[in-house]
Amino acid sequence: VLNTVSGIHGLVLLLGEPRQRPDDEAEYRRELRRLSEQIAEEIAAQRQLLDAERGELQVASARLSIPELLDDVVSAYRHHNLALGRSIVLRPVPPVAITTDASLLRRALGNLVKNALEATDGGGVVTVWAENRGDEVALVVHNPAVMPEEVQRQVFQRSFSTKGSDGRGIGTHS
Q1: What is the rounded average pLDDT for all residues in the chain?
Q2: What is the pTM of this model?
């Protein structure tokens, strides 16, 4: 939330500068709209996490196209700051659909993509794909790094972070 608010604040300051090109101002306004939507989603995600931890989460299940889902997730992170100097590749995805809560699954995959980008050295590739396994669909986010076994055992625990004091340990837990 703080990162998003900082982005909004920076753009508001830029809009207050006296000499703006019309193209720049339009771009800043589009980015402000995107960031304000993002902060609303982040607040909703925190509420959902608290509801889930209290056993009160209400899921909204609906049919979801896996190719559309993965395309959306990859598109959302392809130009993210974490992707600078790295590539995200979406392999061909089978034309399948599942019944799930789209916002929860999108957030989980987004967190996995963010973590994979953070763990990938410059010039590296994060690959995303799905496998149709009959009555199951496997969603895969792959990067070349390997987590030590001790980290693997803790990665889904609340407040565990591989980033030390810079991390909050909420993403994968959520």
Answers
A1: 84
A2: 0.71
Q: 46-91, pLDDT tens digit by residue?
A: 888 888 889 998 888 999 999 999 998 898 888 788 888 999 999 9
Contact 132, 139 (CB under 8 A): no
Rg of the chain over all Cα atoms, to the nearest angstrom: 18
Cα 171 to Cα 174: distance, rounded to the nearest angstrom:
5
Query: Hey, how many other C-beta atoms are within 10 angstroms of the C-beta on 113?
Result: 24
Cα 33 to Cα 37: distance, rounded to the nearest angstrom: 6
